[in-house]
Every structure is written in C-alpha cells, then in structure tokens.
C-alpha cells in the first residue's frame, strides 16, 4: 500500500512522505495503522510502522487526507519501439501483381503531393499490409518521404503510436505527457506537428478494422505535408469520407503461383504451384504460409504434389497454419485459422451475433456466388431471425467477409461470394452441436430455391449457380436423413437443368451427387437410384448412348427389384431407356418398353397425369404410319393434343409437346399441309418461350424443314436446316448424333436425294 498525505498544524503546511510527519512526540489526534500504536492525553506517543504503513504524530490539531492505491503502481503507457519501420511479420520475397495499385500510389508521393487519404480494403489475408509495406519502402527510399507506421488495430495501439509520431515530428516531453494524461487533446497535438513537419511524410495506419476508433478524437485527417494510407477490412465508403478506396482481392493465377514458387522453389514447378494456389483460393496469406511450410521441412520434406494431396481433406486450415511455425510472432493475423476470428469476436461485442450465425450457414456451402434470393426466405429463421438477416449480411459485407457480385450476363443476378479458405476456417471452428441445424437449414433453403416441378424453359443461370452449393452441402453432411434430402434436391436441380437444355451441368450434378450420397446411403437407396437415373438421362442427351444405356439398364433392374416395375421411379427410368433404344435403332424393343411405361403410368398416376400424357405423346413420335392408324382406332391417339389441352391447358409444356409430335405423325401419314401448319405454330411458340437454341425448338424447326420440302419449298427447307445444323454443332458438337442426323438431312435436301414419306390412304 502506498499513500500521499497533506495536513496543517497551526497554519504551517506539512507535506511529505515517509513513516511520520512532525516531531518525535506530540499531543492530539493521531492516525495509527495496523502495525502501529499510539497514546494520547498528555503522555508521550509511540508509533511503530511495518512494511508500507505510516504513523502520524503531531503536537497540535492536524487534518490528514490519504489516497490509497492497491497493487503495483500503474506503468506509464508504453509506446511502440519504432514508428519509422513497418511492424509487419514477414514481407513477401517479391510482391506479385498489385503493380497498378503501387504505381498509382507512387505517383502521388513522387509528385510531392499531400493532403490525400488512400484506403486499401479487403478480406483478411489478402495482402493489404504487404502492399502498404512495399509502398512505404518506395516512399522512404526513393521519394524522400519520412515514413511513419502506426498499428491502428485498437485504441491503445493507435493512441500510443500516434503520440510517438508526434514525438518523432518534434513534440516535447511536457506536451506529450499532457496529452497522455488527458490535459490536452492528443489528436490535435499529433496533427499540429504533422502539419508543421519540415519534411514530407507518409503515414500508414495499419489494421484499422474498427473505423470508429479513428473517428473518436478525429485521428484520421489530411495535411498538405503528407499522405495517409489506411489498411482495413471495412469496405463501406461511409467510414472513409473524402478518401480514395482501393479494393484488394486475391491474386491472379500466374502471380499466385509465383508467390508460392518464390518461397519454395525446389519443391515443385510453376505449374504445380498453380494447382496448389487454386486450392488455396490464391489468397496471399495462405500462399505465404504454404510456402513457409514447404521451404522449412527438413526431416520429411514434401513436394508440392504431396502438399496438394493433404489439402484434399475437408478441414485443411490446420495444415496451412503449420507454415506459421517459421514466424517469430505467429499472431492471429498471421494464421488463416484465426485472422477472421478477430472480426467474428467483434460482431458479438457490438451486438450483432447474427452475422456469425449467417457466416456459419454460408460456410456449409461452396466458395462460389450464392444468389441473394437464397438468403431471403423464411427458412433462414431456424438459424437467425429473418428480420436480422439484412443487418447480418451488411455486417459481413462491411467487414470484407463476403462480397457482392453480379453473376448474370446482364448484371441482374446479384450474389454473395466468400473466400474458400475463410469458409474452411469458419467451418472448422463451428461447434459440432450446431452443424446438424445448419445443414438442415441450408438444405431447406436450397430446396426452396428450386421449382417444385421443373419445367422446360430457357437457360437459367441461377440453376448452375446453385449446383456447387448443393454438392458442397452433400459432401459435408453425414446424417443419413439429411443426405437423402439433399441428394433429392440435387436430382431435382439436375432435372431442372436438363429441361433448360443444360445437359452437361445436369450430368455433372446428378453424377457427382450419386457418388457423394452412395458413401452414406449405399448404392441401392431410393434417392441414390433416382439420381443415377437422372445421370443416365443426361448422358443420352449428350450423345453418350452406350454409357446412358448401361446406367439406365442397371438402375432400372435394381428399381424393379426393390420397388416394382410400376413404381413411378422405375417408370421414369424406363421412359429414359426407351429413348436410348429408339435412337440406337432398336425400334421394337423401344416401342415395347414405351407401351409398358405408358400403361404403368396410367395405372400408377392416372390417365391425365402429365407424365402419363407425356409417354402417350411419345407414341405419336415413335409409331410408323401403319402403327399410328391401328393405334388410333384403339385409343384415339391422334386426338391426344385436344385431350392434353383439356386436362393440362393449351400452354402446358406437355400439351405443346403433344402438338409437336402430332405434327410429326401427320407428316408420317403424308398430311403435309396439316403438319406444316401445326409445326409452324409450335415453332413460333417455342421460339418465343425458349429461344432459337433450345433443343426442342431446333427439333421443331427440323420438322418444319421437312414439311416445307414436302410441299415443294426446298430453298426454305435448306435455309432452315442450315441454321439448325449450325446451332446444333455449336451447342452439342459436330460429332453428336443429333448434329449428324441434321447434317445428313441438309445434305440430302441440297443434293435432291431427299424424298418425303408417301401419303397413307
């Protein structure tokens, strides 16, 4: 315990410190601590003090005031060891890319300009500090600037660093002490000396991730004597009025590969480094840590290929952070597993925990553009209140934990995108108790983003955007019920892609989903079989007939064994298989399977179900002239378009398909005028609804070319087929079966070898 006392004895001031005040004896009031004694009333007083105790004795009236401070005396605020050298962990060997940013900054200091503020903003680990360090070196060594570097991560560091700047620019000890003790405004003192500096300067405020700190006391100002450069994760312009903002993203692929190769040149080639860089999302911090790890392995050195194989594990953040072992100070900002946790902790402190919940939800998905509509759904309420989703997303955007991107060709499809290493880090730190809820919520939101019954339509970029997220969620989920739910979503997504003509994406999505779900559910689970069936349907459309047939036959056999031949899933696979058989010349087998499918769907789903009518419509396109006449006598098949319009509506896709196939049947029967009029109307509808490149529209135009030629309009037919061949070759490839058939028809029309079918009487 220590203390200070003051008192008056008969008007004379007494002050001091020690074990006692006044003479050796006295009368009157006294103060005795636990280690002292005292007597009053005319006899001598004795006092003893122990340790830091005091005894006060006086011969007259004395009034004593004491102020006690327990514990060690507070030390004077510690300042940085230097503001003339950047406080960075490990600058890059060579700063790759970023040349445009550095050149622009260099021009400002080379011209002797001042009064400017530049803000480098971006996600943690993107190299903002590295760019600031490179600019600092250029400004001090080539441009004659005094370089001043301040850590602005927190109030204490900012205040002590800025006061150190004032001392560097000539502030006296008394002024600094007054500012430290609050007797004069500290920021005013600093900027007074910056404004009066005899030398031009560059002031770097590094890690200013909480702009409110700079606003308190107006620490961020401009001066004609220098330039201010700020590095921050906060992207919102409102924090930086009057400043020029520069976004810092990840590196281009070639530069990212060179960063890794610079650090570990003997562990692999530039091509191998590029592969690793892609897996690390080309994030400078991750590249630096990976290079540090590879270059410092002694007992068991790894090649880049070996490092890449280990990165294939879902949680590879810890492997990346092992590269920080070579750092003298591997603080949180130098670790990918911790650098973003600083921001997440700040969300909780500032009353926005929902931002953390939202990021954990996004982390269950892929580091690809995610449509904003995914987040704007009531299903998100299971993880965070929907009313708070807007503020949570704005928090993530403001702290550079995600970004807004336009994924559509016309800029109308707004999405959010987060870096893969960030998502890995967040996912690894997510409590295990929350993963089940996060997975089911993500699945529910993906489900809500898809149409309940996918329909034919033009290409929809949103579908392809959802695919990597569905597959990422499927890869991370281990609960069987959730896996079954998500693989069902993947199958429906593949079906939707298929019906927009995006067959490659449909095949890739369904095939990958099948493989992922099989790990948990086995290869005979109903949901897995449905996904495999959809894979076979896509293979058919891609012209890969042998693979399609093998996939569909194998799937159908298991479905019939487990669920029966008239189960809707079995019938769906059978419908796909008969298409393959028809296009590979096995007409009789295909027709028998189609008849069985139509009958099975009628029994299982009813006569007017869209799928039942779709199979009956396929009979119109599969039967020859004689078969059509016979079938029409039994089932009135030729009146199917009217039946579809009555039960589904004239504009339904199945109704349009029935009219299309009816036009083909009329053509087969030699009713060319009827067929030409009907297919012309169908083609116009297809072009309006789907566009000229849609597969069904091309098939309709091909039939229109046939009817035109049958009516003697050969030039029109050739023009139509020329366009069809060009478009099919562009979308399907020159060697696709459909392209080849169209090309053969065009050649026959041009050469005069083509003949229409003979009319049936």
Automatic annotation (TrEMBL):
Q: Which domain of life is it from?
A: Bacteria
Any GO molecular function: ADP binding
Please list the residue ranges that the record marks as compositionally biased, kind Gly residues: 1-10, 17-41
What are the start and end residues of every segment in region (Disordered)? 1-92
Q: Where is the composition biased (Low complexity)?
A: 72-92
Q: Name one Pfam family in it.
A: TPR_10
Q: What is this protein called?
A: ATP/GTP-binding protein
Organism the protein comes from = Actinacidiphila cocklensis
